[in-house]
Design brief:
Elements: H1 2-33, E1 54-58, E2 61-65, E3 75-76, H2 87-91, E4 103-111, H3 123-134, E5 144-151, H4 162-175, E6 180-182, E7 191-195, E8 199-200, E9 205-206, E10 215-220, E11 226-232, E12 240-246, E13 252-259, H5 266-279
Antiparallel strand pairs: 1-2, 3-4, 4-5, 5-13, 6-7, 7-10, 8-9, 10-11, 11-12, 12-13
Length: 296
């Protein structure tokens, strides 16, 4: 009988010890959980009309892009395509937008004559609309260029147009049966290539009426990398250029289209756009560093 009593006593004591240990663990767990706090809210800047900036990571840097500047919208890495109607696209939920969320691309309007950025509800928008209304119908040079900025997120992606230039030469030779010939004189400091040396091989006449081979202008850095790659039309009354370039200060590729008359400003255009993007760079927490281009 005494042995049974002792056994019950030991079991009761053991149960009490386990209960005490559990309570102690709960206290320790609670103590550990107590310091955890909700992440601080993301600070987003506004303009004088109350429009919020678009934020994210561009070229490895946090940016705050004034809301009035973005011409269409900002797209983030992982966003479905504009016309993607798949079930997967419909279920997609974008991660919370922070200064670390990678931007895929966005666009804005830039005036080549003075480096101004078009911003809605500002004087620059009035200028842009007036120029659209008056200059384009008259066939006069349109001073605005449309800029698209693409983020480079792949670490091994080359930041030059070497391959693009080689592919263009090969495709023209295979499909149109002509070569691009480098011209002896540079144009505005750019190396100049003409399709088939400016002669249409099918007619042996000047190439001016054939849109298959736009003029190509390139600029290389000291390492031989093509950092500027421009293709320009030479047909019709209004001739345009598609101007692509890379920045050394930010991992992005920029493409701007404009009237060919402004080709001579290519170097200043690249410098101005680099300055515009740099003005939108902020600290990791979103604090402004410089006066933002396009914001009053």
């Amino acid at each position: 009988m005494k042995s049974i009593f002792k056994l019950y006593f030991k079991l009761i004591c053991l149960s009490c010890l386990l209960l005490l240990a559990g309570c102690d663990n709960d206290k320790q767990t609670g103590a550990k959980a107590a310091p955890q706090q909700q992440p601080a809210p993301v600070v987003r800047h506004q303009d004088r009309f109350g429009r919020y900036d678009s934020i994210g990571n561009l070229g490895g840097k946090p940016v705050s892009i004034p809301g009035g500047v973005v011409f269409t919208w900002v797209r983030y890495i992982g966003d479905p395509g504009d016309f993607d109607t798949s079930k997967q696209a419909q279920k997609y939920q974008r991660p919370p937008i922070t200064y670390q969320l990678p931007i895929e691309g966005f666009d804005f309007q830039y005036r080549l004559t003075d480096g101004a950025v078009m911003s809605y509800r500002e004087q620059t928008e009035e200028d842009y609309l007036r120029d659209n209304r008056t200059l384009i119908p008259q066939g006069k040079p349109f001073p605005w260029g449309h800029i698209i900025v693409y983020n480079i997120v792949k670490p091994n992606q080359p930041v030059n147009f070497n391959k693009a230039f080689i592919n263009t030469q090969q495709s023209k030779k295979e499909v149109w049966h002509f070569d691009y010939i480098e011209q002896p004189q540079k144009v505005y400091g750019l190396t100049y290539f003409k399709a088939n040396n400016g002669i249409d091989p099918s007619t042996n006449q000047p190439w001016q009426d054939n849109i298959a081979g736009p003029d190509i202008f390139i600029s290389k850095n000291p390492q031989g990398e093509i950092k500027t790659y421009i293709k320009c039309d030479f047909t019709g009354e209004i001739q345009s250029c598609s101007h692509g370039f890379y920045l050394d200060s930010m991992r992005v590729i920029i493409n701007i289209s404009y009237d060919r008359i402004y080709l001579e400003k290519w170097r200043q255009t690249e410098k101005n756009i680099a300055g515009i993007l740099d003005s939108w760079v902020v600290t990791d927490k979103g604090a402004l560093i410089k006066k933002q281009a396009g914001k009053m």
